Amino acid sequence: MPSLQNNATTPETGATAGAAAAPQAGPRFADVGSRYYGILLASMAVIVILSNIGASKGVLFGPIVTDGGFFLFPFAYILGDVISEIYGFKMARKAIFTTFALSIFASLSYWVIIALPGFTDDYGVAKQHALVDALGPVPQIVLASLLAFLAGQTINSLIMVRLKARQGERKLWMRLMGSSGVGEFIDTLIFCTIAAPVIGIVGFGMFANYVLVGFLYKVGVQYLLVPVTTLAIGWFKRHEPTYAV
Fold first, then answer.
1. CB-hemisphere CA count at 13 Å for 139?
2. pLDDT attached to residue 26
3. Which of 1, 17, 66, 243 suits 132 as a labelling partner, its CA being 20 to 30 A distant?
């Protein structure tokens, strides 16, 4: 008969401790051997890349100033929260770095596509101009997103894991709301500062509108979806084979 083992893991490594079964004082995290981590990482990368493309377009809703990636980007943070809660800080950091390595690769691919010689008829020239207008600003958007998401999501994940070290499995809603507020503010401020000139946002009033609306929207979506995020995290905890419940 196989012996029972404690699958508790440390927040820094996510590695299985392998100690004898006993009440767990510290936070629990899953190993990344199952398919779920890869699915979450791939979903985060796709959302961030699409957000970077959408962010090159300025969007107006009456007096509200935002960009075309506004409806997607909060979900990248939600996925970051799920990864941090289930797999720990080291695996969340790996997901962040992987996502932005892929974002840089996508940006370089756009540059090659634009640089390739196209058809010289009117349709070809019009299409080339459309590609330049749509994808040309993306490298600076990627830079803004890289620095902003790297800082904001790292702090977001670190707060999640540190609070979990104190709270264990309790007060998940507090971890989700507290980490999201701090992480999204840092992310929004850095991103808007770098991306605003590319999008066409000029003047302090328009910039302040962009930052404030972006921050309130992102945090509002995440807070509104806290019950859904909580249910999703619960599902992963039950179905992730190495998560000790």
1. 8
2. 66
3. 66
Adjacent-strand bridge partners of 61 = 64
The reported pLDDT for the residue numbered 9 is 45
* DSSP code for 35: S
**Consecutive 10-residue averages of pLDDT for the chain (245 residues):** 43 43 62 86 93 82 81 88 91 91 89 90 91 78 83 91 87 87 89 82 84 87 90 91 73
Burial (CB < 10 A; 0-12, 13-18, 19+), residue 140, is middle
Three-state SS string over 202-245 comes to: CCHHHHHHHHHHHHHHHHHHHHHCHHHHHHHHHHHHHHCCCCCC
And the tokens for 47? 């959302």
Place of tokens 């972006």: 214
Q: In b/e form, how buried is each residue of 193-211, taking b as 16+ CB within 10 angstroms? A: ebbbebbebeeeeebebbb
Residue 209 neighbours by CB under 8 Å, 6+ apart:
63, 64, 65
The CA distance from 131 to 128, in Å, is: 5
Kindly state the tokens that stand for 201.
Answer: 């946002």
pLDDT confidence of residue 3:
43
DSSP state at residue 153 = H
- Report CA 243 to chain centroid distance, whole Å: 22
Question: Rounded CA gap, 201 and 208, in Å?
Answer: 10
